[in-house]
Amino acid sequence: MRTQFRPVPMVVAEIAGRQHGIVALGQLLGLGLSRDQIQRWLASGRLIPIHRGVYAVGHRSITQEGRWLAAVLACGDGAYLSHGPAGQLQGFVDRRERLAHHVSLVARADRRRPGIVTHRPRDLVPADVRIRRGIPVTDPTRTVWDLASIWTPTAVGRAFTRAERSGLSRRRMAELLSASPNRKGAGVIRTLLAESPLPLSETRSWLEELLVFTCREHSLPLPAISVPLLGHEVDFLWPDARLVVEADGSDHLDPGQRDSDNDRDIALGRAGYLVRRYSYLAMGRAESVADEVRAILAERL
């Protein structure tokens, strides 16, 4: 049976289709393209340079995954997306945060690239990396370990807790801590390992998670989460204080939803419950929210 011939442009398009619209110079040369032909493709707009030796194929509108992969490919073999972008790719760092591209390198070669923050950890091992959506990336445990050296304790604590739902291994984290007990950020990791996991599996949104984090970070008693109450399900309940807190996302701006919320708040109020609602904007002032909840608990207890 004869093998069907596929023109090189078609093969390039297929590779780009598997790589979020990105190809690397080495891949093009491996297909038999000459450097002169690659230059002609660049001049015609068929290839759009993203980093040195890394191109978008046919268009400039590449996805965030494409930009992450481009940063990794630009750094050569043995490169892995790491730190904040690795957390965003794996779902435990908010994608709305604009973060620099961080890449960790196993190879010792100098791979500095404009627009990419490179790291050369000595202790990065195969067990600490994976492929996610076709992108080489440090796993959740290693990612949080790396973040501890550059982020605030509060941000690291939130990433640690969320990463536990994405496969963070406390055992592996303890091994990293034991091997480098004096590394920057090690104290934060030591504290987090000593704490019990937060009940984030019961939350249903990032906003609800923020309120749970606020309770821990400001030494408030943790509430019961997603509790049936008088025919309704409330987000948070401090039963002894009869305090209900609702984390209101953008869906609560709908007039019909607001009417439903008001009816429910009145019913709970008549039964002796105080209902307090916090939006995403309010949770940006977490310390004020914590002070208010603490004051209400003190009054009602």
Q: Write down the Rg.
A: 25 Å
Extract low-pLDDT stretches: 1-6
Helix content: 40-55%
Give the amount of beta strand, in percent: 15-25%
Can you tell me the number of structural domains? 3
What count of helical segments does DSSP give? 13
Largest sheet: 4 strands, mixed
Structural class: alpha+beta
Strands of the biggest beta sheet: in what spatial order?
9-10-11-12
Task: Describe this protein's structure.
The protein has 13 helices and twelve strands. The chain is an alpha+beta fold. The chain has three domains: 8-62, Arc Repressor Mutant, subunit A (Orthogonal Bundle), CATH 1.10.10; 65-194, no CATH class; 202-300, 3-Layer(aba) Sandwich (Endonuclease, Chain A). A hairpin with a 2-residue loop joins strand 9 and strand 10. Helix 5 (83-89) packs antiparallel against helix 6, helix 6 packs antiparallel against helix 7 (153-163) and helix 8 runs antiparallel to helix 9.
